[in-house]
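Narrative summary of target 7.
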Amino acid sequence: MNVYLIGPMGAGKSTIGRLLAQELNLTFYDSDKVIEDRSGANIPWIFDVEGEAGFRERETAVIDELTLLDNCVMATGGGAVLRDENRQYLQSRGTVVYLQTSIEQQLERTARDRNRPLLQTDDPEAVLRKLLDQRDPLYKSCADIIIQTDKRHPRGVIKEILRQLKQPCSSLS
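Modeled conformation, tokenized:
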């Protein structure tokens, strides 16, 4: 069993992924953390030096590799769905869960996080709206399960994911 969490920054992918993996007794991976560990640099530095294109190349390689593993939960970066090949790897190698959240919730959860290069701007709300407009259709197109995370405790979200994972495949969206 493999479960891949997709969604915008601040949706709770890393927190929920870690707890879900514990609940299912699976290994947890955070694709951004794997990229940072392997490169010896944080995401903002990679963006500064290699640009978004360089970061996306690293991300695709890591997603390809991690989706070939068995019995894992992976939290992806918010932009992982931008590349066709990433969506194909995720969809064909496990169950994809879209953690959906509001712009307001994203702003609240990312307000003090300096490790988000796309939000280092005078108007992070406008950036989040633009990203959501671009990415939401991609999230929905590859999701097997869609879960709203706004104002919800991670345990409640995990309980809903587990309930939906137990449903027969034919009832998944």
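Helices lie at 13-24, 31-39, 43-67, 84-93, 103-110, 124-142, 154-165.
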